[in-house]
Amino acid sequence: MGTTTKTVPPVTLTQRHLLGIEGMPVTEIEALLARSHFFASVIDGSIPDSDIPQSLAGKTVVNLFFENSTRTRVSFEVAAKKLGGSVLNIAVSGSSVKKGETLIDTATTLNAMHPDILVIRHHAAGAPLLLSRHVDAAVINAGDGRHEHPTQALLDALTISRKFGRIAGLKIAICGDIANSRVARSNLYLLGTLGAELRLVSPATLLPADIDQFGVPVFTDLESGIADCDIVMMLRLQTERMQGREIPSQHEYFNMFGLDEAKLMRAAPQALIMHPGPMNRGVEIDSVIADDIDRSLITTQVEMGVAARMACLEALIVGASI
Fold it and tell me: pTM to 2 decimals?
C-alpha cells in the first residue's frame, strides 16, 4: 500500500455512492489508499503533473454544505479541478433551504441540473443516504451529524501510511469528544480494518452510549490512554452538539484532557500528533504541540486531503461509466 508507481489504477467501487467506511470491503479501502498515494506523489512533485488523468473532464461536482467547513469544501474543490472537473459551491445560507425547502426538494432541484457528483455535509446523520435515494448523481458524504466522515478517515490513513510506511500494528489513541465525533467513528472502522491497535480516550461524559460495540480499549485518563502510543489523534470539542453539561469548563477540560508537552511524554518517544481541525488551541491541544514541525502531522493531513478526495471523486466517476 505504501508503494507509489505510475501503474496504480483508478478504483472501481462496488457501491455507487461513498456514504461511509463501515461495511466497505478492505480491498476497496486499500485500493483507494493506493490510488491516493499516487495522487499524493503527484502533488509533492515525485510524479509530474502531466500524469494526472483528467478523469472528471466534462463532469460537474456540486458542493452542498449545510455546515461550514472551509477545509473540507476547498479540498474537494481543488481535488475536482485537478482532475479536470467543474465545481459549483452552493451557499446554503443564501439558498432556498433557508426559506423552508426540504432536503428532498433540494435534491429534486439539483437533479434537474444533472450534476455528476454531489458532495454533502449535513448536521443530521443519514442526510447523505436520504439524498442518494433521490438523485441520479453519485453522492459523497462529507460529514453527517455524529455518523461518519469517510474521506477524513481516508486522508488520515494516507497521512499515517506515508509517514510510517504501514498502519498495521501501530498504536493509535483517538482522544477527546468521542460521543459527538463522526471522525472518530470513521477512523475506528478504517484504521481498525487495516490492523491498527486502537484505543479511545475521553471523559466519561463524552463517550457514546454504544461505546462497548466498538470493541476497543477505553480510557478516561489522557496520560494512561496515550501511554506508549505511536500516534495521538486529538479531536475538537463539538460544543455545537453538546447539551452544555458535559464538561465543567474549557479551562478544566484542557487541564485534564488537553494535550501539552508534559502529557505527551507518556506516549512513545517519537509519537506524532494528528488533529482533523479546526483546532481549539488551549482547549484540546496546546499551540506548542500543534505547531511542532517535527511531531505534528496536522498540516500534512490538510495536504493529503486533496489526494484522498481525488481518488474518491475519480472512483465514483469511473464506476458510473462501467
Answer: 0.93
